[in-house]
Amino acid sequence: MATRAAKRPVKAGGDWRGAIARFLRRTAGLILLAVLLAGLALWWAARWTPNRDLYPLQGVTISADNGEVHWGSIKAAGADFAYVAATDGASGVDPMFARNLAGAREVGIQAGAIHRYSLCQLATDQAANFIRHVPRRADALPAVVWLDYDDRCPDRPTRALLLSELATFLAQIEAHTGKRSLIAPGPSFESDYRVTQGIARTTWLRRDFFEPDYGAHPWAMWQANHYIRLTGADGTVGWNVLRPEGETP
Is 112 in contact with 140 (CB distance < 8 Å)? Predict the structure, then answer.
């Protein structure tokens, strides 16, 4: 009489090893998918600009971080205007400011200067720095005062003191330029100091991909994307739009 072949015992180790292998394969697949999605998001962010039909006038923010800028390429990318980093606090000067200003004008891009305001230095000293390095020109765009926190400056003055100093700074640089300046507070700075309520100036607000609404009154200029990459500039640039004249939000 034939005897049945004895069943081989199942090795317990085989089950958990197979489970681990399947888990690792699934995890690797999910990681690869996440990497691909992140790469796609970065690719999209580096190219996105607001609709030209809604915002016909668009431009860039440029600084020394963008290296040797080829302004013809910037114009070809669709920049109608440019704001160029100029001065910082009481003594800082962007090393590429003069070259960027001249380069933009050479290709027919109207340009303006940006001053990064410091909470740690006197308004009069900062105004002297701006006046010393930013030339008065009838064809220049109004200057912009960039208001944001800086790791180099731990000071946090009272709102009353800040508004008083900022008013002094604006009065002095506007006497030099002959034009009223814009103020550009970041979201956190505006939340703490409510500058747009206390200083009657045109505002430039910032928020990537979505219109900003943190000012006391509607923005005139919006930095819509600071991840833009353009042929002709190293790294990323800020991409800005002007609110069309007569448009009410």
Answer: yes
123 and 20, same domain (yes or no): no
**Does residue 9 belong to any structural domain of this protein?**
no
In a domain, 135, yes or no: yes
> For residue 86, how far is the Cα from the chain centroid?
15
Continuous segment of H or E residues that includes residue 186: none
Identity of the amino acid at 50: P
Range of the domain at 123: 52-242
**DSSP 3-state assignment of 23?**
helix
Residues 22 and 94 in one domain: no
Same domain flag for 144 and 34: no
The token pair that represents 54 in the structure block:
């809604």
**Tokens standing for 29?**
């697949």
pLDDT in tens, 188-224: 999 999 999 999 999 999 999 999 999 999 999 999 9
pLDDT in tens, 39-65: 555 556 677 999 999 999 999 999 999
Number of H helices, E strands in the chain: 7, 9
Instruction: Using pLDDT thresholds of 50, 70 and 90, give the confidence band for residue 15.
Output: confident
Q: Please state, in angstroms and rounded to a whole number, the distance separating the CA atoms of residues 115 and 137.
A: 16
Q: Please, which residues bridge with residue 84 across strands? A: 62, 113
Is 15 exposed, middle or buried, given 0-12, 13-18 or 19+ CB atoms closer than 10 A? exposed
d(C-alpha 118, C-alpha 153), whole Å: 7
Residues 134, 185 within the same domain:
yes
Task: Give 134-181 pLDDT, tens digit per residue.
Answer: 999 999 999 999 999 999 999 999 999 999 999 999 999 999 999 999
- The pTM assigned to this predicted structure is 0.83
